[in-house]
Amino acid sequence: MGFFTRLPGLFGRGSEDDPLAGHFTTQLVEVLGPELGGLRTHVHDLAPAVAAAHHNLDGAIARLDAPVRLSPEDWRADPLVNALFVSMEELTGFVAGYPDIAAFFTSGGTERACFLLTASRREETVLGSETDGQFLRRDVPQTVVTFSDHRCLALAPDEAETRSRLVGLGLDFLAMLAAEAILERRRRRAELNEECRTLAAKLKLFERQMHGFASAFEGHEALAGKRAEAEASLAAGQTELAALRTSDSLAEAVGLARELLTTPAESLRFERMAMDVDESGVKNGPAGHGRHVEFAEFVARNGLRRAAVLASVERRLVRP
After folding, report:
1. Are 221 and 161 within one domain?
2. Nearest to residue 233, comparing CAs of 196, 261, 270?
3. For a FRET experiment, which of 16, 85, 247, 268 has its CA 20 to 30 Å from that of 277?
4. Beta 135-156 vs 282-283: how paired, if at all?
C-alpha cells in the first residue's frame, strides 16, 4: 500500500475528502505554529493546486528508470554503476557503511532494499593521453566526470513503495518551501515596520537639526538632502508595506502556497541527462571507448543539482 493511500482520516475533520491537501496543510501548520491553524479550514481551497503538484511529481518519479543493482558484479558490468562510483571499494564501502541502509535491514526481514541514490556530479578538464591510430597523443584536454557525496532516500522493500514515498517526500518538500515563503513574508513585514518607524523618527530628527545647533556643523542643504533621502525611503517602505497588508495572514498563506504549487518546476525540476563516459570517467572520449549512460538530475530553486537514480542493494552486502 502506497503512502498516499494511507492518508484519509489522519488529519482530522475537513480533510477526509482531500487527503493530499489535508496532509499539505498539516505540514504547514506544524511548522508555522497554531496561529495559522485556521489553514485546515482552507483544505478545499488548496486541493486543486495540491492535486496538480502531486500529479506532476508522480509523473516525474514514474519517468525514473528501473533500479540499478549496487554490487561488485554490477560495478564491473553496468556502465552507469561504474560511472557513479570511482572504484569498487567506494561502492562496497557506501553500501556496507551507510547507516540508513544498515538500519533498514536491521529493522526488517527483507533481503533487498530499494531507494533513490543521489550524488553530486562534477566535471573538470584535465590533460590526458589518447591514441590516434598508431600514435599516442599526450596533453590532450579531456573532460572527466565524477560523482561524490552519495546519499540514499526513501528506503523501501520494493521499487513501487520507493516511488510512492518519493512522491510523498516531494510534496512535503513543496510544503516546506511554502512555509519558508510564508515565514519570509512575515519577516519582511516586521522588518519594514521597524524600518518605517526608524525613518519616521529620522525625519523629525533632520527637521530639528535643520533649525537647531546642528546646522552650525552641517549646512542647511546637506541636512535637507538627508531629509529628502529619508522621505523617499519611507515612501518606498510604506508602499511595499501596504502591499503586504492587503490580506489577512490566512488568505496570504493560502495564496503563497497556491502560487508555489502551481509552478512546481520552479522549485524542483527533473532533468534527463545522457552522456558517454569510459571506464576512467572521461566524457565523450575517442569513438568506441565511451559507454552510454543515462540518469536524472534534480534541480532545486537555489540552483543546486543532484544526480539521481533508483538503486537496489542486497542484505548480504551490508555489514551485520
Report:
1. no
2. 196
3. 268
4. antiparallel
Q: From start to end of the chain, where are the E strands?
A: 68-69, 112-132, 135-156, 268-277, 282-283, 291-300, 305-314
| Domain termination residue (choose one: 247, 282, 299) | 247
User: Is 309 in the same domain as 208?
Assistant: no
Identify whether the C-beta of residue 115 lies closer than 8 Å to the C-beta of residue 162.
yes
pTM over 0.90: no
Cα–Cα distance measured from residue 102 to residue 118, given in angstroms and rounded to the nearest whole number? 18
Range of the domain at 198: 186-247
User: Which residue intervals of 1-148 are DSSP H helices?
Assistant: 19-32, 43-62, 72-77, 79-84, 88-97, 99-107
- Of 247, 269, 285, which residue constitutes the final position of a domain? 247
CB 299 within 8 A of CB 268: yes
User: Do both 54 and 138 map to the same domain?
Assistant: yes
Sign of the four-CA dihedral 62, 63, 69, 72: negative
CA distance linking residue 183 with residue 305, whole number of Å: 25
CA distance 233 to 63: 50
Query: Is residue 191 located within the same domain as residue 179?
Result: no
Q: Are residues 122 and 235 in the same domain?
A: no
The interaxial angle of helices 19-32 and 249-262, nearest 10 deg, is 120
pLDDT in tens, the chain (320 residues): 343 433 333 333 334 457 889 889 898 888 888 878 888 888 888 899 999 999 999 999 999 999 999 999 999 999 999 999 999 999 999 999 999 999 999 987 789 999 999 999 998 876 666 666 666 666 667 788 899 999 999 999 999 999 999 999 999 999 999 999 888 888 888 899 999 999 899 888 888 888 777 777 777 788 888 888 888 998 998 888 887 765 567 888 888 888 888 887 788 888 999 988 888 777 765 544 568 999 999 998 888 899 999 999 999 998 76
Specify the number of domains making up the chain: 2
Same domain as 209, residue 169 = no
